[in-house]
Every structure is written in structure tokens, then in C-alpha cells.
Fold:
Amino acid sequence: MLIARYAKIVLCLVLAAFCLIVTFDNITDYGTNYLFMQHVLSMDTTFPGNALMYRAITNPMLWQIFYALIIAAEGMTGVLFLAGAIRLFQVRDAPAEIFNQAKVYAIAACVLGFLVWFFGFMVVAGEWFAMWQSATWNGQEAAFRFYVAVLGVLIFVNQPDGELPGFVPPPRVTPRRRRTDKAKAQET
Structure:
């Protein structure tokens, strides 16, 4: 169905917009989210006296590096979603095999987005740095919304697309066999 193909393209475009706006916001409002990184990594708002404090990172240079990596990964996710949408649009009327093969950028975007918001925010920040203990600097709920949306799109985009109605495959051409010298000699 052509509508399913357009739906996959639109969902990739929407996630591209989301990721690129998040990236833009993190760059233009650097200080706000830098504070978030500082508090999460330093673990200064977790439960007092918790046994996990040995994991805290209090070096501002490392805060900057972690934040730059997150911004870069969010931006790359947005670019991959955009590239995926463009590629899918280019082959929207193509045979199913070509359309299904063109999903590579969209699938890569989904995987990277899942790594950013699930692995980065839930595993690393949430569990390793005990972000879940902070009443003020806890981004797990927002991250959950993001990675569930990405997973939903991944499941939908990854569904195989069939041939479009009215598609007639090109006739199969069988290669002509070459006559050998022996066959030529027998003909004469």
C-alpha cells in the first residue's frame, strides 16, 4: 500500500524534526542542559550517603565531553532520520525489494536514537549515576517518551512492504546460451 510507505516517510520526518530541534535547543540553550549534565554526573542531588557516590564525576571537562557526545548523537540521529525519509521518498513507487532495502538509514536512526535515550538516559544516567534518586534532575520520564516513540517507528518501518497495486514485474530475460566450438562444428 502506498499509504503505508508515505506513513513511514512522514514518521521519519517527524522524528528528524524532533531530534534536530532537540539538538538545536541543546546548542542554543547550552547552559540549562549543561546544568542537567553537571548535576546528574556529579550525583549531588541523589540520596544523601548512598553507596553509589564513588561513581560521581566532578570534573567539568568531563561534563563538557559527555554533553558534547550527547548533542552530537542527537544531531546524528536527526540527520539519519532525515536521510532515511529522503531515501524512502525517492523510492516510494519502486518495487518492494528496493523500498525495503532503502530503509537502512531510517533503521540506523532508530537504533542510534534508542541508544541515546534508552542507553544514555536510562542505563547510564538513570542507573549508573542514580538519576532516578533525584527529585530535581531526573530525565527518565522524558527519555522514556522519546525511546518508546523511536521503538514504535522502528517496528513500523521495519515491517516488510509488499508490491504496490498494479505493479507488474518486468519480464524475466533468460540469458542465451553460447554455442561451443564443438557444437558449431557439428552443425556444419
Summary: Residues 91 and 99 are 6 Å apart (CA to CA).
